[in-house]
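PROTEIN ENTRY
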Amino acid sequence: MSSAFRVPRSGLAQPWDRAHRGRTSTYDRGTRNDSGARMNLTLLVWRQASGSASGKLVRYEAPHVSPDMSFLEMLDVVNEGLIQKGEQPIAFDHDCREGICGSCGMMINGVAHGPMKGTATCQLHMRSFKDGDTIYIEPWRARAFPVIKDLVVDRSAFDRIVAAGGFVSVSTGSAPDGNAIPVGKTEADMAMDAAQCIGCGACVAACPNASAMLFTAAKAGHLAMLPQGQPERRRRALSMIERMDLEGFGGCTWHGECQEACPKSIHIDWITRLYRDYLTAAVTQQAESAAEAAI
């Protein structure tokens, strides 16, 4: 994989930046085509046969694209044309196509999920582009998200972070009655805000450090807001951050790119809450260890 396509976008040039330097950008958030007229687009798509193979951008023409198509529907049409010509279709992740499952995800003109803020790739419509546009499409770029094929990356590192502590232990019987423990309206609303995380990985792809702190904070934070999550709150913070570091994600340095890219608009305030729990747990653990050693 060429290192030219691993440059973070925090003030440094991406391939599509260099290709369009000196031109007026048509890719700013909010640019729309509401005329209803069909568009002819040029796609430059990252093609990579496997994780061990080298990859490159390949040019495809996408004619007569309806502005009412979703971005993934446009790729479906391109793939149908490739299959008819006996070529390999473009591999990309998708499932629900409703912005819920988190399967879809790609860099579109250097922006995670594309130009519409608070929108997953599957919910992005082609009216966000204009006739004649050139669109660069690449996979997430992070050491912890190795490319499997084309636009598909391995995001199982997220599963291992959740398995390290993103749960509430129930020792016996079936799930307790949901109304058995009262939860305040404010706490419930905040928990739901964090629980919206769909695990797409856009926060990692957008971060110059490829940090997974926003994902980890959201998965730990929604449990920390509920009474059921209190007994394991400190251990959860330690375990999940430790697992995140082991997976090779970078550290958070407060660029804020994660919250801008998040399709659910999860705020970085959740990271401060996780850091608070982590520091409290680390100090407590150290004091307990010192006390045990003194006995």
Q: What stands out?
A: Confidence is low (pLDDT under 50) at residues 1-30. The chain has nine helices and seven strands. The domain at 156-170+182-294 is CATH 1.10.1060.10 (Fumarate Reductase Iron-sulfur Protein; Chain B, domain 2). The first helix runs from residue 15 to 19.
